[in-house]
User: What shape does this take?
Amino acid sequence: ELILSLMSRAEHYLKTIVLPNKVNNTLNGQVIMNLFFEPSTRTQASFDIAAYRLGAKVLNPRIQDLSLLKGESLVDTLKNFEAMGVALFVIRHSENHKPEFLSSELNNNTRIINAGDGINQHPSQCLTDLMTLTQVKKSFSNLSIAIIGDIKHSRVAHSLIDGLTIMNTPDIRLIAPEQLLPAYTLPNNVSNFSSLAEGLKNVDAIVCLRIQKERIDSSEVPDFDLFYKEFGLNSQAVKYAKKDAIIMHPGPINRGIEIESAVAVSTQSMILTQSHNSVAMRMAI
Ligand code: CP
Assistant: This one.
């Protein structure tokens, strides 16, 4: 119900504020802080734009300029910002569960949004992707969705598997070399495949993921040429899916490694729609 309500609110914001280029006063007087301990193009900018469109003041301090470098803990840093009136933090961190931990250390009425924690979860990306899927496919209850690539180290994949499962998606297919498949037990609606031909057969949507080389032991990093040959999403592979299948990628895309350039810009590609929708979804969140 919460996911449906966020998608409905995001669609409302898309039509009434984002598309007509408006700003409303929902968060007037509020101060929001983005704290990104890892690089970001899409998530940070879209949370920033979302907050601007809701009338909030947004701070984006550079991590290297904070007094963390003088020995202050992150909890103490946040408590000081909280004391100055920051009521909402958007946090990306390389440690799993860091936003959850920080939330437990702050006042009950201070909000923390997880903008991606380690290899754990990226909930706002998942919600954006569910919104994008709904715009084209209407219902989750009869969908087959393939996720290709480095699923094991992808917080996007972990959130998407959870989100699609909550929405009763019956058929989620994970396509990856053995070392990039998740090590944990998967729900019954999720199955593993080691070939694009089998995994993509008649799917309604394909989600492509990059290899998260910054988080992988070097022994697990596949040979990029071999990976592209076996698991790269090219025009030929897309033909295994349904004719009206959509192609998604949370970004950043690596053309020629996990996705062919022509596929990324094809009429089936929703990659820029995902970025477009992300502002409205992050406003809703
Ligand atoms: N999808 C995503 O999280 O992209 P960024 O790393 O650019 O924010």
